[in-house]
Design a protein that fits this description.
Layout: E1 2-6, H1 10-21, E2 27-31, H2 35-43, E3 49-50, H3 53-59, E4 62-65, H4 69-82, E5 88-91, H5 97-103, E6 112-117, E7 138-142, H6 149-161, E8 165-169, H7 171-199, H8 203-209, H9 212-218, H10 225-234, H11 236-258, H12 262-272
Parallel strand pairs: 1-2, 1-4, 2-3, 4-5, 5-6, 7-8
Antiparallel strand pairs: 6-7
Helix pairs in contact: 3-4, 4-5, 7-11
Length: 280
């Protein structure tokens, strides 16, 4: 199995490491617009060769697009143009509705699989790639009915080789759920970091007082601003709805604390504790 990975950052690089170690890929090719990232990926042994996109698509059984979501709109149709007969193109973007519309009428659409592996860290670039990033995480495959059966089954086999749980979903539903479960949590982290940096002028105090709770909550604020700005742009409509609900809950907490109504504050937190039944 020859696999070409377009974009050799955290997701693409980690995918390369695991597909090599688990034997899914017998040959790994990389496509990378950044010369420094391309060299770094080669130095790290993530891929065996850096090629241009046209050659990478024509040589591969599977082409994986692991680029920022705003780049997918331009790249995905080109990949489908270049794809060799029988080849499969899988994208790994965090939003799905817009790219689904962009490639909907492409003659090679049925060789495309829209996917979102729900995995990541706050780090970026080839050096951020790690083994087992995807293990026991969810892989969402969207709009299965628009892909050939052998194409989405190959994508399913790829994700299962990483020990991921595969779920099928409509692209629009995916973007709604991703806004609630993933995207707003990053905004919360960015906002908390901004609040602390603005109000706490002493770096020493931040370092000394920020124990596990703060560090884990604000960890996502170290994520790539470019990547997340693109995601927010792609999923703005759903994200606004989620933020309105989030701000409403924050206002509710504020009003109850201002009114010294700690019985109701307790009730809200007790209600929130029910998440323990879902997230073990």
């Amino acid at each position: 199995m020859v696999v070409t990975i377009i974009g050799l950052g955290l997701i693409g690089g980690s995918l390369a490491k695991d597909l090599k170690s688990n034997g899914f890929a017998t040959s790994l090719l990389g496509v990378e617009k950044s010369d420094s990232h391309a060299q770094e990926a080669l130095d790290l042994g993530l891929v065996g060769e850096i090629v241009d996109m046209r050659d990478g698509c024509r040589m591969a059984d599977v082409v994986v697009l692991a680029t920022p979501v705003n780049a997918l709109g331009k790249l995905f149709p080109m990949v489908l143009d270049y794809l060799r007969p029988g080849g499969v193109a899988i994208d790994m973007g965090s939003t799905k509705s817009e790219i689904s519309q962009i490639i909907h009428d492409h003659p090679n659409r049925r060789r495309a699989v829209l996917a979102h592996p729900m995995a990541g860290t706050e780090f970026s670039g080839p050096s951020a790639a790690i083994n087992n990033l995807f293990q026991h995480k969810a892989a969402i495959i969207c709009d299965r009915e628009d892909s050939d059966a052998d194409a989405f089954l190959l994508a399913e086999r790829l994700f299962k080789s990483l020990f991921m749980r595969v779920t099928y979903m409509d692209s629009r539903a995916h973007d709604v759920h991703a806004a609630y479960v993933s995207h707003v949590s990053h905004i919360s982290s960015f906002v908390l970091a901004l609040t602390v940096l603005e109000k706490e002028q002493s770096e020493a105090n931040i370092f000394d007082l920020a124990s596990g709770g703060f560090a884990s909550t604000v960890r996502l604020a170290k994520s790539s601003p470019r990547m997340w700005a693109d995601i927010y742009q792609q999923n703005a409509h759903n994200l606004i709805d989620v933020l309105d609900e989030y701000l409403s809950k924050m206002q509710q907490f504020r009003d109850l604390i201002q009114a010294s109504d700690y019985d109701q504050v307790y009730q809200l937190m007790e209600e929130a504790n029910k998440i323990k039944k879902i997230l073990k």
